[in-house]
Amino acid sequence: MNSVIPEPLVTKIENVHLGISYDESIQNYKFINTNSESSEAEIKIDLSVSQVNLFNKILQSYFSEITELTSNNNDIYKGIDLYLEAKLASFELLSPELSRNDKYAVWLRYKVILYDSKKTLLSKWDITGYGEQATGSRVTESLTRAVDLAIRDVGVNLIIQIEENLDKFKTKVSTDS
């Protein structure tokens, strides 16, 4: 999967350096459906590129500088104002065979944690996304479209969370400097 994420129309938070760490579940997630009791073909979905692109695109729209850190890194870096950790908590796929209709449905749920420059917890969010697409005549395209819709829905919900917490980010950064 390589979902196309539109450029978010948001106001940049000037002079804020964000350190981001992606959990292994974002960097390397691959879904494989191997239901041997079903006549359904095996389904393989590699979300790693789409997930990283989604978070990078949105976060780069907000923050003037971003540094990708290794996951499980507890170090504090000079010059980083905020730290964000992102993890895929769940991926669910409902196929037409399982739902007994002509649609694919995809649910995504992420855990996002935001820290200040000293790694003091600022906020925790659950970010969700949902995508649904009728199969029509092209099953593979329908599944891809359902995943794309779910990824884009996650993006919208991430933007909403950032917007709701924007004042807190700006205040916390300016008082910690």
Provide an overview of this structure.
With 177 residues, this protein is of the alpha/beta class. It has one domain: Double Stranded RNA Binding Domain, CATH 3.30.160.150. 34% of the residues lie in helices and 37% in strands. It has helices at residues 24-27, 48-62, 96-99, 139-176, and strands at 13-22, 30-33, 43-46, 63-69, 82-94, 103-115, 121-134. It has a five-stranded mixed sheet. The chain has a two-stranded antiparallel ribbon with strand order 2-3. Strand 6 (103-115) and strand 7 form a beta hairpin. Helix 2 packs parallel to helix 4. The longest helix is centred in the C-terminal third of the chain and has 38 residues, at 139-176. The N and C termini lie far apart (40 Å). The model has no long low-confidence stretch (mean pLDDT 84).
